[in-house]
Amino acid sequence: MRRIAFAVAIGAVLIAGPAGARKRPAPTAVETVSAGGLIDNVNGYTLSRDGKVTRFTGLLIKDGKVVRLLDAAAKRPERLDFRLDGAGRTLLPGLIDSHGHVLDLGLRAMRLDLSGARSLAEAQKMIADYAADHPSPRWIIGAGWNQESWGLGRFPTAADIDRAVADRPVWLERVDGHAAVANTLAMKEAGVTAATRVPAGGRMEMAGGRPTGAFIDAAQALVGASVPPPLPRELDTALGKAQDVLLAHGITAIADMGTTADAWNTFRRAGDVGRLRVRIISYAAGIDPMISIAGTGPTPWLYGDRLRMVGVKLYGDGALGSRGAWLKADYADAPGQRGLPLLDDAKIRNLMSRAAMDGLQVAIHAIGDAANAQVLDAIAELAETYKGDRRWRIEHAQVVDPADIPRFGRFGTIASMQPVHYVSDLAMAKARLGSARLAGAYAWASIAATGAPLVFGSDVPVEAPDVMAGIAAAAGRDDGALPAERVPVERALAAYTVTGAYAAFAEDRLGTLEPGRDADFVLLDRDILKAAPAEIAGAKVLETWIGGSRAWTATQQK
Predict the structure, then answer these.
(1) Tens digits of residue pLDDT in 74-126
(2) How many CB atoms lie within 10 A of CB 336?
(3) Which residues of 291-319 are buried (b: 16+ CB within 10 A; e: fewer)?
(4) Distance of CA 433 to CAs 156, 233, 267, 328, 426, Å?
(5) Per-residue confidence at 558, pLDDT binned at 50, 70, 90?
(6) CA-wise closest residue to 162 among 131, 191, 136
(7) Residue 527 to residue 90: CA distance in whole angstroms
(8) Which of 306, 302, 404, 411 is nearest to 362 (CA)?
(9) Element (DSSP H or E) covering residue 251
(10) How far apart are the C-alpha atoms of 487 and 477, rounded to whole Å?
(11) Comparing C-alpha atoms, which of 400, 409, 384, 500 is closest to residue 440?
(12) I need a surface site. Which of 263, 320, 464, 551 has the fewest CB within 10 A?
């Protein structure tokens, strides 16, 4: 609590007196105010966008903002609201996850999670056990399966799921959210038959002239439209669970890529009652929710810099694991297939233009080299019309034709990438692309060398929001696959802090610990600038602070 002491001198009325009488001083009021709070005795550092590291041992904060960085020789204020002895621990700016799905993270924790299944048989047991333990609601909804880790060589089918549960509808999303499998009853209730028309940008797997139960990208809506949506109270619970996970990983801000109207309302409900702890930078799930929520431009920051819609998220293609990523040449392991372009050239330009005309930022999902080329073409054309600071974003940029990489730098196109995907997807990527086409995959260093801003995220819940694992993956690419794409630890950290803030038009308040910025920071158990990549991956977040207040500590998990 702020402590204010007043010393008031009562001035006397000056009365004419004898010559030489001394005049009394005029009334004065002296106010002594606390200097704020001090996080002291830390190994602190913050970065600028050009990679300069500023070190400090004390962080002075007041009213939720950074006041001053103190070196070891600097005198400490005497009057403080509080002083925390950091005991030599490392202090970093709050970490920014530049690509995630907040409510999906929370819902994953509330539903059937198949991410731990390592075989179809194991998944079937998990489904059956879940059904037995959860007699309601009637629909069984889950996510997280990955046929690559099962060694199936194919997608799971309705018949596979029926062997686990046949008397209740089941709908299970793939780990990347770009494919799903339904059991027979779910397809029946959705009215899906062999004659069902598949929407553009989607694929319904068929065998013997009948749907197998697997639906890719836009085709997921054929069943997904019949799945009961979560209730508002379930979304509120999901947001709480998601924030717990994010704070435990030191994430103080996240770009929510694909905010629906229901999600926005959930964030607002939390903000209204003071339960919005993590800063959410929102990108609408298409033009309609963008217009409904933001209207004619980015929203203001709400709830003390906790929530803002800054742009729109569009989709150029699907994912590599489900062979929905749009490639320039056939998949090496599926001749004749090149993936699924979700928007033609005219439509992608129209949608981008609709957002840009109102000053909203455009972020486009592009995984395959054909999709990335399409988006880069569109940016080159629209940049002639929409001048100024646009900060066009490509989400993932996972597989880029080496000939297209220099084009990222031309208009400062932001490459929003996920280093942990490299670790989990590399074997699958080699199978999908073949060794020759890996040259443009996960090309962090090459894209950064063009001058394009490089930012990192997790794509949570596809991957865990583990920033330390992401930094280790980006800096420790030592498995023989394109080691030249490694980036220095400092650049990787910047991609999760200062550049992440820039990528979301938030550099005026987030990303660094410069005076005047929001006092968001984390305390770690080790110095990651001095650690080997393997040691960085094991770094533990000890405390997470947002706006000058402690939001999470490791002791909460004990």
Answers:
(1) 999 999 999 999 999 999 999 999 999 999 999 999 999 999 999 999 999 99
(2) 6
(3) bebbeeebeebbbebbbbbbbbbbbbbbb
(4) 22, 43, 39, 11, 10
(5) low
(6) 131
(7) 6
(8) 411
(9) strand 251-259
(10) 9
(11) 400
(12) 464
Tell me how far apart the alpha carbons of residues 170 and 154 are, in angstroms, rounded to a whole number.
19
φ and ψ of 181, to 5 deg: -125, 140
Q: Provide the token pair at 148.
A: 């690559």
All domains of the chain in start order, with CATH: 104-224 (3.10.310.70)
- DSSP-derived letter for residue 82 is E
Q: Which pLDDT does position 556 carry in this prediction?
A: 72
CA-closest candidate to residue 430, choices 471, 474, 469, 482:
482
- Residue given tokens 């001198």 in the structure block: 9
Distance between CA atoms of residues 222 and 36, nearest Å: 57
Structural element, H or E, at residue 212: strand 210-217
Residue appearing with tokens 């010559």 = 19
**Cβ atoms of residues 455 and 428 within 8 Å:** no
> What is the distance between the terminal CA atoms of the chain, rounded to a whole angstrom?
29
- Distance of CA 399 to CAs 129, 241, 320, 403, 499, Å? 38, 33, 9, 12, 22
Question: Which residue bears the tokens 């996960």?
Answer: 442
- Helix then strand count (H, E) for the chain reads 18, 26
Torsion angles phi and psi, residue 4, rounded to 5:
-125, 125
Residue 76, both tokens? 């400490």
Judged on CB neighbours under 10 Å (0-12, 13-18, 19+), 358 is: middle
| CA dist 75 → 62, 69, 164 (Å) | 17, 11, 68
4-50 per-position pLDDT tens digit: 332 323 232 222 333 333 444 454 444 468 899 999 999 999 998 87
Phi and psi at residue 443, to the nearest 5°: -90, 60
> What are the tokens at 477?
């690419």
At which residue do the structure tokens 């060694």 appear? 151
3-state secondary structure 501-538: HHHCCCCCCCCCCCCCCECCEEEECCCCCCCCHHHHHC
Q: How far apart are CA 454 and CA 451, in angstroms?
A: 9
Residues 169/185, Cβ–Cβ less than 8 Å: yes
How confident is the model over 300-319, as pLDDT tens digits?
A: 999 999 999 999 999 999 99
What length is written for the chain?
A: 558
pLDDT higher than 70, residue 447 = yes
Q: Are 381 and 425 in contact (CB under 8 A)?
A: no
Q: How many CB atoms lie within 10 A of CB 111?
A: 20
**In this structure, which amino acid lies at residue 369?**
D
Q: H or E element: which one contains 271?
A: helix 261-272
